[in-house]
Design goal:
522 residues; alpha/beta; 3 domains; 14-stranded parallel β-sheet; globular; F-box_dom; F-box domain-containing protein; F-box_plant; LRR_dom_sf; signal
């Protein structure tokens, strides 16, 4: 079924639900009974629209669709709307019992605020309670259903309801076929937790973890935040969560300057955001393919690669302060032979040290995609050529040059002694040979506000001179974040004419300049 058709039918379903909705507030979890794995509405006033659909089944064309088509449509709805579809006709009563995707998110039950920090403790308790009701209604009463759950995704807050949610999921994993289960566990304070709050959340989580080992043992994906665990915490998680394929840790650690050792047979993707680890030692992760580090506070290398033979994609994001050393990628990646690398400098000091081709070739000989993100506009770009020199298989180079005020250090904080004043200091580099040529680069994409157009033109000229087979350069306007989304604009004729003229002065005529609309980037 085409995407457009399924979405059209989805809108039709939502309109039918809206037409049959009662005037007063209705909770789908309190108004459904289950019998033999099927849901039956009770104490429900039937609207004229619903009555027509039930009485005149010949006109209920949606209900005549095959099961797989119907599921394809319904599974595009939120879980609340899925429950409400059961009032549309007899056929629809069976839908919750045959869902292949069960997605229950606390965010679906929260008041709609642009800023999640406006949520009150009562809002959070209410959302968590509703998650528990929904989990029980959907999972406990699927007993006997022959339909497997291909995806069970849960998002909830760490709280009194967590254990009951975990036990319900554990029972479903034990009694039903669940192909993939996910937990995203939130804390009531989401940002800037105090040391005491990190410790409290850490103890609360381990109590929850110890109460539901079977639920965690069946997880494929786990996302945690704001936890300070004891020394045995993470080893226990890796030991119990044997099926874990994805792990994301935001502000999680075992104390300041703690060491995280990772040994796991199934883990394929690891995301570390902030936290106070001195180092993450990936000792043995034979299936790891993706690694992302977002902001590290340690003075030396943030991670150490052991046995990671399948590692392909590495993303490193950091704001460099005066205590950070400049990283040598040849030592950090240690012969991992990755194919996709992203480096995000947050519009602050460049924290990688240029190296020669001989040092980089063992880790970059398979590199095909390189993203250099948020390079400050005042930085010279000549240093970036060392990456091209050391990656002979590179096919795509993306570079974003801008001063992103939403992320960079601004105001009085720039006067702090730990803030680097020279953002491109220590980036001296000379090519391995005077006639250095690159034969595989096929795409160069430059993103930015083009305030420093002269630097970007010189950079493009240097790339074109080295990349003998490069024929196209794509110029994009700077991407935006949530806070600066108002700045997103399309190219104007005046802008494209000006940039085309500036680039044509330095770029050979056989290289075409394109101005695409900003799509999905990085």
């Amino acid at each position: 079924m085409s995407y457009l058709l399924s979405n059209l039918l989805r809108r039709t379903i939502l309109l039918s639900i809206a037409s049959s909705a009662p005037a007063k507030r209705w909770s789908p979890w309190q108004s459904l009974e289950f019998a033999g794995g099927q849901q039956v509405p009770r104490h429900r006033k039937t609207s004229p629209v619903m009555a027509n659909m039930v009485e005149d089944s010949q006109d209920d064309r949606l209900s005549k669709l095959p099961d797989d088509v119907l599921l394809n449509i319904v599974e595009r709805l939120g879980i609340v709307d899925v429950a409400r579809t059961t009032v549309l006709s007899r056929r629809w009563k069976q839908i919750p019992a045959i869902l292949s995707k069960v997605v229950i998110l606390a965010g679906s039950f929260e008041p709609k605020h642009e800023d999640w920090s406006k949520l009150t403790p009562d809002d959070i308790v209410r959302a968590n309670t509703t998650v528990l009701e929904a989990t029980r209604s959907i999972l406990e009463r699927r007993a006997g259903s022959l339909y497997p759950i291909h995806l069970l995704r849960m998002q909830f807050y760490l709280g009194d309801e967590s254990i009951l949610i975990g036990q319900t999921v554990a029972n479903a994993i034990a009694t039903q076929k669940v192909d993939s289960a996910e937990f995203t566990i939130l804390t009531k304070v989401r940002k800037k937790c105090t040391k005491n709050e990190l410790l409290i959340y850490g103890k609360q989580f381990m109590s929850f973890f110890d109460s539901c080992p079977n639920a965690f043992g069946g997880l494929a994906r786990l996302t945690l935040e704001n936890l300070r665990l004891g020394e045995s915490g993470f080893p226990k998680i890796f030991s119990i969560c044997k099926q874990l394929e994805f792990l994301s840790l935001y502000e999680c650690d075992m104390g300041i300057k703690s060491l995280l050792e990772v040994e796991h047979p199934q883990l394929s993707e690891l995301v570390i955001v902030c936290g106070r680890f001195e180092r993450v030692d990936l000792k043995w992760a034979p299936k790891l393919t993706k690694l992302k580090f977002n902001v590290f506070r340690c003075r030396d290398d943030p991670f150490c690669l052991g046995y990671v033979p399948l590692l392909q994609t590495v993303s490193i994001i950091n704001v460099a302060f005066t205590w950070h050393k400049m990283l040598k990628l040849s030592e950090l990646l240690d012969k991992a032979a990755i194919s996709n690398l992203s480096l995000d400098f947050k519009s602050e000091k460049i924290w990688v040290k240029p190296e020669g081709r001989r040092q980089l070739l063992p880790v970059f000989h398979k590199l095909s995609i390189l993203n250099l993100i948020n390079i400050a506009e005042e930085c010279d770009l000549t240093w970036t050529m060392f990456l091209l020199d050391g990656a002979p298989s590179l096919k795509e180079l993306h570079i974003l040059v801008r001063n992103h005020l939403c992320e960079m250090v601004t105001g009085k904080r720039r006067e702090l002694p730990v803030v680097c004043k020279e953002k491109d200091k220590g980036l001296e580099w000379e090519p391995s040979t005077s006639d250095f040529k690159h034969h595989n680069l096929a795409g160069l994409s430059i993103y930015g506000r083009f305030h420093a157009v002269d630097k970007l033109v010189r950079f493009a000229r240097n790339v074109v001179e080295a990349a003998v087979n490069l024929e196209d350069i794509r110029l994009y306007k700077s991407p935006v974040c949530v806070r600066c989304k108002y700045m997103l604009q399309e190219w104007t004729f005046e802008e494209t004419s000006w940039l085309r003229y500036e680039f044509s002065k330095e770029i050979p005529s056989h290289v075409r300049i394109h101005f695409p609309s900003l799509g999905q980037v990085f």
